[in-house]
Design goal:
It contains 6 helices and 8 strands; from the N terminus they run H-E-H-H-E-E-H-E-E-H-E-H-E-E. The chain is α+β, with helices and mostly antiparallel strands and 243 residues long. The longest helix has 30 residues. It is a multi-pass membrane protein.
């Protein structure tokens, strides 16, 4: 049935002590094809695997004004140029882009690395992206498009479940969990805090390298019950495009 080595059928399980809770993934016949048969794909990674991961969310700021004032071909060209550069930094530091949506994406670090190593890699990737973007703004975007591209980055770490979803003939990686939602909220908070690179306190304290003194604050994120301590690693946004 192509199950991975850490998966056993329920009929092979022996409960040795009290306090064990079991929950069926397959609830009725409508669930069976998700895990067994052609629609399940070549492997059973779609069962999901929980691991401590680092979530990295990035979004281009105020891109709507650029879209409104430029031909669609220019917009696609800019997105392609930016994402190609961003992807190189993400992959160079061991991350993987999971999903893109319009003018943003999120990546995950830690699939094949320990959490503290993945945290340091994600932060380094963020700094590299901001540095590359500054160079491109000066030498390219301001020169040819009279526009200054700005981005927001949010990074958080925590338990998440990664697996594949079969869509058509292809498997698509998904990563889900509370930590993913927190990282997304942190990226949104870059506007409120006027800083283009924000990380959670847990990320900051897991870093293997000693960072300089960065300001810290507490913020109430939408949908999160308690205020969260964050560190501001970036710079304030420009109020207007550089001309």
């Amino acid at each position: 049935m192509r199950f991975p080595p850490n998966v056993r059928l329920a009929c092979q399980t022996q409960v040795e002590r009290e306090g064990v809770d079991l929950s069926r993934i397959i609830r009725d016949e409508s669930d069976i094809n998700l895990y067994v048969g052609i629609d399940a794909g070549e492997a059973t990674q779609q069962l999901g695997e929980e691991k401590e991961l680092v979530m990295f969310f990035l979004d281009i700021r105020n891109f709507t004004t650029f879209v409104e004032s430029h031909p669609p071909f220019d917009v696609i060209h800019i997105i392609r140029k930016l994402f190609t550069t961003f992807q190189k930094s993400i992959e160079l530091h061991g991350g993987k882009i999971i999903e893109t949506a319009g003018d943003g994406f999120y990546a995950v670090f830690g699939f094949e690395r320990e959490l503290n190593v993945a945290v340091t890699s994600a932060v380094k990737a963020g700094f590299d992206i901001l540095s590359d973007l500054e160079k491109m703004n000066e030498s390219y975007f301001s020169k040819y498009f009279e526009h200054y591209i700005q981005i927001g980055i949010g990074v958080h770490a925590g338990p998440a479940v990664g697996g594949n979803i079969r869509l058509g003939s292809e498997n698509h990686m998904v990563v889900m969990g509370h930590a993913v939602n927190v990282a997304s909220r942190l990226q949104n908070a870059t506007k409120e805090l006027n800083n283009n690179f924000i990380i959670s306190a847990c990320v900051f304290h897991l870093l293997q390298t000693t960072l300089a003194e960065y300001p810290t604050t507490s913020i109430q994120l939408k949908g999160i019950s308690k205020p969260m301590q964050v560190y501001l690693l970036g710079k304030p946004y420009w109020a207007h495009d550089k001309r």
